[in-house]
Design goal:
Layout lengths: L3 E6 L3 H15 L24 E8 L9 H4 L22 E2 L29 H8 L3 E4 L6 H14 L2 E4 L9 H9 L3 E3 L9 H14 L3 E11 L2 H5 L7 H12 L11 E8 L6 E11 L5 E11 H21 L4 E2 L1 H7 L9 H13 L4 H4 L5
Parallel strand pairs: 1-2, 1-4, 2-3, 4-5, 5-6, 6-11, 7-8
Antiparallel strand pairs: 7-9, 9-10
């Protein structure tokens, strides 16, 4: 199979897990005996995870810019699990990106090993870098609240003909104005805000739907999350959380026939706990009313390594984006967005989204007829 040539914007924990995972599954596919544990799909249109190749990378941290990608993914402040250290040589040097709104001012008050340290270098031309590298898909891992930085890379994709996979809750693919531009330029895109394989949001969605389908009315619910990576440190600034809360809340509300009163649902990051590093802990509670008006409640504690949990879904989003490009599709790929993202252009029940993405993978050229566009 040919390679899928990708670029990465933001060489943080999520990028580290993605790059490690590409190498990990390649190393575990020797002699025809592939280890597929941890994958939603071993193959997508014939593409395996190890068929993904990083050809360009952007960051703003002085400890990463100018370094080879295989070194930068392990540089501070990254603190995710190192599950496959030997990723090989990539020949990719991390380039300086535009900072814009990518660094929250409050982070400068924290120790250097926990926060970003912006490099004093001019930014490269992202669109030109993408063209020169021959990238087909750009994966955006901008920090939460970095709307301008996210839009900068979206525009670079439009200018270079590269597909956009937006893994963060800065709305581009689900924004009709941006979606229309990708459609008009003939470029497929996937977003916004990646769901983890088994993370807080997908678990909350599943349990909310369970209550709904079993006839139990949800009266109120919360989801509180703590972690110790730069994502949680960044999100201590509540001004950067508007889109994150919308994304996570709508993801759960979309699974219910009757939405919960806004005053009775609270979903969002709770605090930064440095010693947790990339481990995310979710505390979830649902209070409901069952048969005869009798109350019940459910409480759950979920602990996951945050970045590998998301990478397992991103490898599918990348491969589906490649299928869309090869099929000549343009704009948001609704089935892929609904299955892989929290805030897609069109929400679906998870069972319907799974069926839709399986249909897409089996025959991507039929996507337009089967899945009406949300734009």
């Amino acid at each position: 199979m040919p390679r899928i040539r990708i670029a990465i914007a933001g060489v943080g924990n999520c990028a580290s897990s993605l790059v490690q995972g590409i190498s990990y599954y390649g190393a575990h596919s020797q002699n025809g005996h592939a280890d597929t544990a941890g994958l939603l799909h071993a193959e997508v249109g014939g593409f395996r995870v190890e068929d993904i190749e990083v050809v360009a990378a952007f960051d703003i941290d002085a400890r990463k810019v100018g370094r080879p990608l295989e070194e930068a993914i392990f540089a501070l402040p990254n603190n995710t699990k190192e599950f496959h250290r030997n990723v090989g040589r990539s020949n990719v040097i991390v380039r300086m990106g535009e900072i814009l709104d990518g660094v929250a001012p409050h982070m400068m008050n924290y120790p250097l090993h926990q926060r970003f340290e912006p490099a004093s270098l001019p930014a490269v031309d992202a669109a030109k870098t993408l063209r020169d590298a021959g990238a087909e898909v750009l994966v955006s891992y901008m920090p939460v609240g970095s709307q301008l930085a996210t839009e900068y890379y979206a525009q670079a994709c439009l200018d270079s003909g590269v597909s956009f996979v937006n893994c963060v809750p800065c709305f581009v693919v689900s924004d009709p104005k941006w979606a229309r531009q990708f459609t008009e330029r003939g470029i497929p895109c996937v977003g916004d805000d990646v769901k983890a394989q088994v993370g807080a949001t997908i678990t909350h969605r599943t349990l909310a739907r369970l209550f709904n389908e079993r006839g139990v009315r949800i009266d109120c619910t919360y989801q509180l999350n703590t972690g110790g990576n730069t994502d949680f440190l960044n999100m201590l600034n509540r001004d950067r959380l508007a889109s994150k809360k919308i994304s996570k809340t709508e993801a759960v509300q979309s699974q219910l026939d009757v939405p919960i009163d806004p005053d009775h649902i609270h979903i969002g990051p709770s605090d930064f706990v440095p010693f947790q590093k990339d481990n995310k802990v979710c505390f979830l509670r649902i209070e409901g009313t069952g048969f005869g008006g009798v109350p019940m409640n459910l409480e759950l504690r979920l602990s996951v390594e945050d970045s590998p949990n998301s990478a397992g879904v991103v490898v599918d989003a990348i491969r589906c984006c490649k299928l869309a490009r090869d099929a000549g599709l343009a704009g948001p790929i609704d089935s892929v967005c609904a299955w892989t993202m929290k805030h897609p252009p069109r929400q679906m029940l998870d069972a319907d989204a799974r069926n839709a993405i399986e249909d897409f993978i089996s025959a991507p050229g039929r996507r337009a007829a089967r899945i009406p566009s949300a734009v």
